[in-house]
Amino acid sequence: MRVLVVDDDLDQISVLKSVILAWGHQVETAYDGVEALKLFPKFQPNVIVTDLKMPRMDGFEMMQTLKAEGVLPPTIVVTDFGSVELAVKTVHEYGGFWFLEKPVDQSSLKALLHRASDQGRLASENERLRLELAQRGVLGDLVGESPEMLNIFALIRQVAPTNAGVLITGESGSGKELVARAIHSFSSRSSEAFLAINCAAMPETLMESELFGHEKGAFTGAVERRAGAMELAQGGTLFLDEIGEMPIGMQAKLLRVLEDFKFRRLGGKSELTADVRLVSATNRIPNLAIKEGKLREDLYYRLNIFHIHLPPLRDRLEDIPLIATALIEKLNRKHGTRITHLDAGAIEALQSYRWDGNVRELRNVIERALILAGEGPLQRTHLYIPTQRVPDAAPPAQGLGIQVGMSIDEAERMLIEATLNQAKNNKTRAAITLGISTRTLHAKLKQYRLQGADDELPDDAESGS
Q: Contact 349/300 with Cβ under 8 angstroms?
C-alpha cells in the first residue's frame, strides 16, 4: 500500500513515516498541500494521512482540489484537539475517511489504514466492474450496444470525473435523465445527492423558490424558511430537465448564479455558496430555441460546456433486445411476474415499429405484455403495438423543383409545403411523414412563415422530457 503523509510538523511526519514503513507500506511525505499535489501524480497513493492546518495550502484545500479532479483516495485527517469540529466537517464534506487526534495513537492509525485500503480496493473493483459492464452495453441504467450508445458511454466516462457543465439533447422519452444520473454515478460526487427539476412542469411563480429556497415571510404562504435545490444538492448534482421551458426572466437569474455559484434565498439578505455540478437537458433544438427567444444564448453557452446528444430509439433498433431484457428484469420485480425472455417473434415485432415515444413508449408496451403473459417467454401475441402511425396511401408528390445551388432552408421549406399539401394540411400526418414531431413541424412553419404556423397545437403534439 502507498501512503502519502502530509504535515508541517517535522517531528510528527518523522514518527508517522517510521511506523508506517515498519508496517510494510511505501511512504512519501510532504510538508503542505502544494508539495503533496506535486507528489500525487507520480506516487499515486492509495491512502493519504494529512494535517489540516499547514502553510501555503492546508489539508482542507488539498482535499477539495483532489476531489474536484476526481482522484481523491481514502483520507485520514489528523487534527489537534481544538480542531475536531473542523475535522468532522472535512471528513463529511470532502470525502475524508476518518480523523485522529494528536498525538496519534499508532494502533488506531494501523487499523484505519487497513480499512481505508480495503475501501480503496473495493472502489477500484467497482469501477472495473462498471467499465466491464459498459463494454457489454450497460452503464448505470442506460442500456445499448449500438455504436451510437457505446460512443455515449465513452463520453459519459470522459466527462463524469470533471465538474464541467453538461447539456443533454434528445427527443422526449429517449432517456436524458438516465444519462444525467450516469454522469453523477461516475463522478466524485456520487455519494452525495442527485436532484432533478423539470422546468416544464413547474409554475413560473414557484420556480425561483424551488431553485434557491426562501426565507420565512418572503411571500404569502412562506410560513418557514425552506431550502431550495441549490442547497439540497450541496456537494452533488443538480439536473435541470427541459431547460428550454424555463421562463426567460428566470434564465437570467440562473445565469447570474452560474457565474460564481453564489445565490440568495428568496427574501434573504446573505449570499450562500452552491457546491453543485449542473447538468441540463432539452428536447428542443438549441439553435432554433435561441432563434425563437425560448433560450438565452448566453445561458446556452454557459450550460453547453460539454454536449451529449441522445439519438431516438428508431435510429438504434439493434438496442431493442437489450433494452427490453433490462426492462423485463425491472418489471418482473415490480409486478412479481416471471417472464424469462423475449422470443424471436416478439423481438422482430418490436424492431419493426417506429417508436416515436422512444424508450418510454417501449416500456409501456413491455409492461402491458408482461402483465398479460405472467410467466415464461414473452411472445408476439402478448404485445400490443399500435398500428404503425403512417399516413394513408397517397400518390407520390410531383417534382419539387429542387435545384443545385438552392439553399438547404429553401429546399426544406419546399419539402414541408409539398408534404402538407399531400396530407391535406393535416399537420399530425405531415409530421409523421417527415419523421419529425408535431411540435417541431409547427416550429418549422413559423420559421418559414408557412400557412398554419399560428394554429393551435393538436392534442397529440409531443410534450414532456
A: no
How far, in Å, CA of 268 to CA of 210, rounded?
14
- Distance, in Å, from the CA atom of 99 to the CA atom of 76, rounded to the nearest integer, reads 5
Angle between helices 204-212 and 248-260 (to 10 degrees): 10
Q: What is the pLDDT of residue 440?
A: 83
Q: Rounded to two decimals, what is the model's pTM?
A: 0.60
Q: What is the pLDDT of residues 362-381, one digit of tens each?
A: 999 999 999 999 999 999 99
Residue 1: its pLDDT value, please? 84
Instruction: Tell me the three cell numbers of residue 267.
Output: 427574501
Task: Count how many Cα atoms sit within 13 Å of the Cα of residue 378 in the half-sphere of its side chain.
Answer: 30
CB atoms within 10 A of CB 385: 17
For residue 30, list its beta bridge partners: 6
CB-based contact 254:211 (threshold 8 Å): yes
Alpha-carbon gap, residue 197 to 124, rounded angstroms: 32
- Residue 423 burial (CB count, 10 A): 19
Give, rounded to a whole angstrom, the gap between the first and last alpha carbons of the chain: 47
Domains identified in the chain and CATH numbers: 2-128 (3.40.50.2300), 152-311 (3.40.50.300), 314-382 (1.10.8.60), 398-465 (1.10.10.60)
Q: What is the pLDDT of residue 120?
A: 64
